[in-house]
């Protein structure tokens, strides 16, 4: 994928993704926009049918099995001028439509409507781009950087010295600061401490493998880090590879550190989610969309692991 339809510029920190058009929502903080930003991410792809129309697919990141098919045709619409009418072909999406306008060869702005064409009620605005900053990267973008020796490398201990802020990465969005890493390098030794969501504060033992930097602590998850630029790193907070009871150690650990009462019986939030969703001892498919929670499968062994992806920026 790298070089053909995906590129990264380490100087500008821009990602050039020609695999699809990545969707974006506004920066407003109303409830609808926030929900769409973090859980309504999507991409669109288009293929030419003839000189007048194209067929397309809209794919929500959080529902991996959904591909909403559409036909795109250029039309003149009162109040909007010349636009691209995106008509969805299959129920239930056929009860909605989009109007798109090209800004330039890599940018599109759009409006989503509910109802029949020309008489629909406007739902929300969005934009799409094939070039975006690392602050808008997807999990695939992060993993591409993480796994590429061209764009990232195993950190040297002295490179990590300082304070780094971390932001969780999902396909839909990147969170505000979620963690802080403190690396102190003195006399050839590296000491690491971290704070996660101002709740979990720990010291980690660190070691460097052939390809990555790995801090370990007493939780069932560990970090994997690689350096992209002197002030930018990408990381994964993951479980060990496993084929059974994948969530159990994670849930038990978070129950100890983050008990959030949701009933008079002080049932923890994770317990309630686990009970209601039937995720007691699951084998999770990698297609499962859980926003920031990613699932990886190792094809050679069939084992899976879960974890969080994050972006690190050096701030001190």
Strand pairing plus helix content: what structural class?
mainly beta
Report the CATH C-level class of the largest domain.
Mainly Beta
Distance between the termini: 34 Å
> What percent of residues are in strands?
over 45%
Q: What gyration radius follows from the Cα positions, in whole Å?
A: 22 Å
Shape: elongated
Helical region count?
5
Low-confidence stretches: 257-290
Q: What is the number of domains?
A: 3
**Total strands:** 20
Roughly what percent helix? 10-25%
**CATH-defined fold name of the largest domain:** Lipocalin
- Main pleated sheet: 9 strands, antiparallel
H-E order: EEEHEEEEEEEEHHEEEEEEEHHEE
**Architecture of the largest domain in CATH?**
Beta Barrel
Mean pLDDT: 81
What do you see in this structure?
This protein has 316 residues and is mainly beta. It folds into 3 domains: 19-129, Porin; 134-241 and 283-314, Lipocalin (Beta Barrel); 248-277, no CATH class. The chain has 5 helices and 20 strands. It has helices at 31-39, 139-147, 157-160, 248-257, 269-277, and strands at residues 6-9, 14-17, 21-24, 42-48, 53-60, 68-77, 81-88, 96-104, 107-114, 121-129, 131-133, 162-169, 174-186, 189-196, 200-208, 213-216, 222-229, 232-238, 293-298, 303-314. Strands 12, 13, 14, 15, 16, 17, 18, 19 and 20 form a 9-stranded antiparallel β-sheet that branches. An 8-stranded antiparallel beta barrel has the order 3-4-5-6-7-8-9-10. A hairpin with a 2-residue loop joins strand 17 (222-229) and strand 18 (232-238). The longest helix is centred in the C-terminal third of the chain and has 10 residues, at 248-257.
């Amino acid at each position: 994928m790298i070089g053909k339809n995906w590129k990264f510029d380490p100087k500008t920190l821009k990602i050039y993704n020609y695999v699809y058009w990545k969707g974006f929502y506004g920066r407003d903080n109303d409830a609808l926009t926030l929900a769409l930003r973090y859980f309504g991410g999507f991409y669109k792809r288009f293929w030419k049918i003839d000189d007048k129309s194209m067929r397309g697919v809209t794919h929500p990141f959080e529902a991996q099995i959904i591909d909403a098919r559409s036909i795109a045709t250029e039309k003149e619409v009162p109040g909007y001028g010349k636009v691209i009418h995106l008509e969805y072909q299959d129920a239930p999406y056929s009860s909605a439509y989009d109007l798109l306008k090209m800004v330039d060869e890599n940018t599109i702005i759009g409006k989503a409507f509910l109802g029949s064409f020309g008489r629909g009620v406007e739902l929300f605005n969005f934009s799409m781009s094939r070039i975006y900053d690392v602050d808008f990267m997807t999990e695939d973008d992060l993993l591409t950087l993480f796994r590429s020796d061209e764009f990232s490398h195993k950190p040297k201990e002295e490179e990590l010295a300082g304070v780094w802020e971390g932001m969780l990465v999902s396909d839909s969005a990147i969170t505000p600061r979620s963690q802080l890493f403190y690396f102190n390098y003195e006399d050839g030794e590296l000491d690491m401490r971290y704070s996660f969501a101002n709740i979990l504060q720990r010291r980690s033992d660190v070691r460097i493998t052939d390809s990555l930097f790995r801090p370990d602590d007493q939780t069932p998850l560990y970090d994997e880090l690689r350096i992209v630029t002197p002030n930018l790193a990408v990381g994964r907070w993951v479980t060990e590879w496993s084929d059974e009871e994948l969530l159990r150690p994670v849930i038990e650990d978070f129950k100890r550190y983050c008990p959030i009462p949701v009933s008079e019986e002080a049932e923890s939030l994770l317990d309630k989610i686990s009970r209601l969703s039937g995720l007691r001892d699951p084998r999770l498919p990698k297609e499962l969309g859980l926003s920031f929670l990613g699932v990886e499968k190792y094809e050679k062994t069939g084992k899976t692991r879960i974890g969080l992806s994050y972006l690190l920026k050096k701030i001190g």
